[in-house]
TrEMBL record:
A single GO BP: L-arginine biosynthetic process via ornithine
Catalysed reaction, written as an equation: N-acetyl-L-glutamate + ATP = N-acetyl-L-glutamyl 5-phosphate + ADP
Protein name, per record: Acetylglutamate kinase
Organism expressing this protein natively: Mesosutterella multiformis
Location of the protein in the cell: Cytoplasm
Enzyme Commission numbers on file: 2.7.2.8
């Protein structure tokens, strides 16, 4: 097949990636995949191929997934309308059962199958397995929406040690055996904290954090926690981006080195972020090293 790249070009690309392979070898990267970045089978397969590549070059990669649109679709099929309060789905007993079927059943197993088909070894678990995610009711008005009280990282570490990619769905349970529906960004952030991850990558359906959410050219490549908090206060960050940024900030305050929000619909965005000079999306750091105007995302990316 004719291609625009010569073998020399390909070798050059690999050589350029070498310092990044070295940087991330043996490091823990938690990737959250979900929402509209998960809409087609092709897209899911492409992202899983990237995850396998990360795994094969020695990154300890953990995949945490959501699947909100699929839960909404399944609820519709049984005649139930979804209702959200501040980005969280109001979850009655029937809804949590359906969330469990969709997340722990269909999506988790589909992603595991794709990872295996692409040459990885993956094991799919939900937050209930091995008491990985303990939760309590967040607010009785929301029903069975879980607030995470504890993450047990041992089963995840065991799988990583044995060379598996853990694939975790965002459900949790309490001591009484109640199951809770948990926002997948929140679950990924808490898991990243429990693992002291080098990177938490949240894949979403927008380029990253934008100065103006309706202007795709206004991407902010690098921001720190204080600036991000200010942008929530000033209304630049709104809607579903608010809980996303809040859980990024909590992760940074709790053992996670850096967080990236990126567009999961762009092919190979995760590889671009980790293995190229340019990166992708928005990186959130605790505190920028340089002053605001001179801060360079690449300085932050190549150092921690
Ligand atoms: N400043 C901003 N930059 C980027 N997106 C923003 C911003 N403010 C609000 N948003 C909105 O947040 C959305 C992402 O949140 P959400 O839809 O909950 O993502 P997901 O379903 O992937 O978890 C974007 O599609 C966008 O409409
Ligand atoms: C409590 C709550 O809202 N849970 C989410 C869980 C799935 C999720 O977060 O999926 P995405 O990442 O695809 O949005 C829900 O029911 O949609």
């Amino acid at each position: 097949m004719a291609t625009a790249f010569s073998n020399a070009d390909r070798a050059e690309v690999l050589t350029q990636a070498l310092p990044y392979f070295k940087k991330y070898y043996g490091k823990t990267v938690v990737v959250k995949y979900g929402g509209n970045a998960m809409l087609t089978e092709d897209l899911q397969q492409q992202v899983m191929e990237d995850i396998v590549l990360l795994h094969l070059v020695g990154v300890r990669v953990v995949l945490v997934h959501g699947g909100g649109p699929e839960i909404t679709g399944m609820l519709k099929r049984v005649g139930k309308e979804s209702q959200f309060v501040n980005g969280l789905r109001v979850t009655d007993k029937e809804t949590v059962e359906i969330a469990q079927m969709v997340l722990a059943g269909k999506i988790n197993k589909t992603l595991v199958t794709y990872l295996e088909a692409k040459g990885g070894s993956a094991i799919g678990l939900s937050g209930m397995d091995g008491r990985m995610i303990t939760a309590k009711m967040k607010d009785p008005a929301l029903g069975y929406v879980g607030e995470i009280t504890k993450v047990n990282p041992v089963p995840i570490r065991d799988l990583l040690e044995r060379g598996y990619i853990p694939v975790i769905s965002s459900l949790g349970c309490d001591k009484e055996g109640n199951v809770y529906n948990i926002n997948a960004d929140t679950a990924a952030a808490k898991i990243a904290s429990a693992l002291h991850a080098q990177r938490l990558i949240l894949m979403t359906n927008i380029q990253g954090l934008l100065k103006d959410k309706d202007d795709p050219t206004s991407l902010i490549p690098l921001i720190d926690m204080e600036e991000a908090e200010g942008m929530i206060g000033s209304g630049i960050i709104s809607g579903g981006m608010i809980p996303k940024i809040e859980c990024c900030i909590t992760a940074l305050k709790n053992n996670v080195s850096k967080v990236i929000i990126m567009d999961g619909r762009i092919p190979h965005s995760v590889l671009m972020e980790l293995f190229t000079d340019t990166g992708a999306g928005t990186m959130i750091v605790k505190k920028k090293k340089a002053e605001k105007d001179t801060a360079n995302k690449n300085d932050e990316r190549t150092d921690d």
